[in-house]
Design goal:
single chain; 220 residues; alpha/beta; TIM Barrel; 8-stranded parallel barrel; 8 helices; 8 strands; 33% helix; 18% strand; globular; binds 1,3-dihydroxyacetonephosphate
Length: 220
Amino acid sequence: MKKLFIVANWKSNKATFEAKNWLDEFKINDLEIENKEIVICPSFNLLSLVSSEIRNQKLEVKIGAQDISPFDEGAYTGEINGKQIEEFADYVIIGHSERRQYCKEDNETLNRKVVMAIKYNLLPIFCVQNQNTPVPPNVKIVAYEPVSAIGTGNPDTPDNAEQVARTIRAINKEIISVLYGGSVTSENINSFTKMPNIDGVLVGTSSLDSMEFLKIINNA
Ligand code: 13P
């Protein structure tokens, strides 16, 4: 049975009290989650809180950051570097289309981010917009997120996502897991995760509600 990644990308949402409420309602340990790796990716300011809540409540959940500095520690005002993230997280999302679009991140910057992630033992979840997006060396997990499907309620078809996932693997031999992201809900999750080349999902909007995210995990 394949291992499924169910990753929540909270994006730029939730103040501290909202994150705490979400975690208090998130009764993940009541679910059967064998073969499922659950990852929550909060904003940087919430990493410490989410980490201590997961520890205190003994939740079977991993943490991912949503971004990482392309620089190491040092005189880079405003940046959050790999050494700082490593204290809290096991994963980091790199190359999300929103960062490519709004923060003008280019392939060279993204390569440097992957290098930093690996230096600090963080597993990159590298986002690609289609099968032609370049993937830096040493990336093992890729998330295929077509821009037209993000936040629109208009997901890709499972057949097309499967075909793109298969092509991504054929082009990039190092990749072990391909996830799908874009308007995933508890209703459509299984149509993606049942595909042989899709190893999980990256969920935005539907992960903001803890009950809906529990349903997603349950239905995957
Ligand atoms: P939505 O689930 O809101 O479409 O967002 C997908 C996404 O961008 C996850 O990284």
